[in-house]
Design a protein that fits this description.
Blueprint lengths: L5 H16 L2 H17 L6 H20 L3 H37 L18 H16 L9 H9 L12 H9 L6 H33 L7 H31 L18 H7 L2 H12 L9 H19 L3 H31 L6 H23 L3 H8 L7 H8 L3 H22 L10 E4 L2 E4 L1 H24 L13
Antiparallel strand pairs: 1-2
Helix pairs in contact: 1-2, 2-6, 3-4, 3-5, 3-6, 4-5, 6-7, 8-9, 8-17, 8-18, 9-14, 9-16, 11-12, 12-13, 13-14
């Protein structure tokens, strides 16, 4: 069941109505049933994978809460990590590792025939596996008290808004909210509705529209030119951001309407002036997970510069592997890791040079140059992330020397009108996102008056806000009705 499907547009209102009509003590059961139904709508048999991971991590949490001996605690943690990561590796990486081993052995003329298991990748397995591991590790570190109520813990793992593509929540952030009694709040409903519609706009309008031109280039490499590959990479960046951030916004909006606040997963990453800053702004909860559970335990920056650079490179390569069982993702992670290491090495010398020369790095022209450099250096990132194989990356790079404006237009399938629509869609998305998050831009919610010493929103502001989003809702659903073909899946579901 995709968020942008008719089934979900029926499912969500039913769940919300039941949630607010039922007493607090029954809500967890209803949400758990709804979450499992939501997950089983893809493939009913895959529910045993998430159920098994839930039972193992829940049992490990209880054991860690009772065992005091350090060695036994480490053994419980190790077994749990092996079982959870082993399940992830089996479903997601077994065929990849097997084929890589066969290809390596065939280099020595062994002529081993390729074969693979017919495995179905459980949707969201990378997300809920990391979420269960964060729970077990935090219980082991005594940062969180083991959850004794199996139903609430199972809901923490399977909570449907963020089940299949995050945000990856820490137990101390989500579990207490699921257990707390919430009361109907019009402010939360309106705020959640705004964020949800913003997510729909990002996915249904911007991401899917950009994707139509990206696929034209990557599915017809022979007709591509250097310029069409360059443009397709930029469009893919916009597609991936709007696709994943759109999912996150829909998830955050759904949860907010139930009184639950999920962690923000994106913070305008394409306004970053360095790869290090980009990593902090893109997929925030995944980067937080790797920092807390991999980078810092490896020593972080505490054990010398060489160890720090190794840790940075290792974490980025691991992040690349997390995204998919393909050498293109390893290369993608390696590229980002190398760029991160270069920035780490140059940071202090550059800062000293700037101070010695008295340069003002905040000058507008310097900022523009930094944006342009980031844009150019980000093209290989998109190319490696979107390509299906190392060979395809090579084919696309070979097109750099091919020119021709008419051939570029033909390869993209994009005319001037299409280009204007893309630009307009991105601009509208930026304004709508600011409005939904109530941070910058046009914010009628801020029109208020003072009464009894308290600031309250005016009735005019409420009506204007509701009207704006009602119009946006009609626009989104109208576009959805006009869309041809099947409902497009979110790209991060494959991870």
């Amino acid at each position: 069941m995709n968020f942008n499907s008719l089934q979900f547009l029926i499912f969500l209102p039913i769940v919300l109505c039941l949630y607010w009509l039922l007493p607090h003590k029954l809500r967890w059961a209803m949400l758990l049933i709804a979450s499992y139904y939501f997950y089983m709508s893809w493939n009913a048999w895959l529910v045993f994978a998430i159920l098994g991971t839930t039972i193992v991590s829940y049992g490990a949490g209880l054991l860690l809460g009772k065992i005091k001996k350090s060695r036994l605690r480490k053994l419980v943690l190790a077994v749990t990590v092996i079982v959870c990561i082993g399940t992830l590796v089996f479903f997601k990486y077994f065929n990849f590792l097997l084929q890589s081993a066969i290809d390596f052995l065939n280099l020595f003329s062994l002529n081993i025939q390729s074969f693979s298991l017919d495995l179905i990748l459980p949707v969201g397995i990378s997300f809920y596996t990391f979420q269960t591991l964060s729970y077990v590790i935090d219980v082991y570190r005594e940062k969180f008290t083991p959850e004794k109520h199996f139903g609430y813990y199972a809901l923490f793992v399977s909570y449907f808004p963020q089940l299949v593509a995050g945000p990856i929540e820490k137990p101390q952030d989500l579990l207490p909210q699921l257990k707390r009694e919430h009361f109907f709040n019009g402010e939360n409903m309106l705020s959640g509705f705004k964020i949800l519609l913003c997510g729909f706009f990002m996915k249904c309008v911007v991401a899917d529209y950009c994707g139509t031109f990206v696929i034209n280039v990557f599915n017809n490499i022979d007709g591509a030119t250097g310029l069409s590959v360059f443009i397709a990479c930029f469009l893919f960046s916009a597609q991936m951001f709007c696709d994943f951030a759109g999912y996150s916004n829909i998830a955050i909006g759904c949860a907010r309407m139930m009184g639950v606040k999920l962690t923000k997963n994106f913070d305008k990453p394409y306004l970053s002036l360095s790869f290090t800053e980009f990593a902090r702004r893109w997929h925030i909860t995944l980067n937080r997970w790797f920092i807390e559970y991999v980078y810092i335990p490896l020593g972080g920056s505490r054990k010398g510069r060489a160890r720090q650079l190794f840790n940075i490179l290792f974490v980025f390569v691991l992040s690349g592997m997390w995204h998919g069982a393909n050498w293109t993702f390893v290369l993608w992670g390696l590229y980002l890791g190398v760029m991160g290491c270069i920035e780490s090495l140059l940071a202090k010398p550059v800062n000293k040079f700037i101070k010695a020369k008295g340069f003002n790095i905040n000058r507008r022209w310097i900022t523009v140059v930094r944006y342009l450099c980031m844009g150019l250096l980000s093209v290989p990132v998109s190319l490696m992330f979107r390509a299906q194989s190392i060979g395809q990356i090579g084919e696309l790079l070979s097109k750099i020397t091919v020119f021709g404006l008419s051939q570029t237009v033909s390869s993209l399938g994009m005319g001037l009108g299409n280009l204007l629509c893309v630009v307009l869609g991105i601009l509208c998305m930026s304004l709508i996102q600011d409005f939904a998050e109530e941070k910058t831009g046009f914010k009628p919610d801020k029109i208020a008056y003072v009464k009894n010493g308290h600031t309250e929103r005016s009735l005019y502001a409420q009506k204007l806000s509701v009207f704006f989003y009602a119009v946006l809702a009609v626009g989104v659903f109208w576009l959805a009705l006009l869309a041809s073909g099947d409902v497009s899946a979110f790209q991060y579901f494959q991870f």
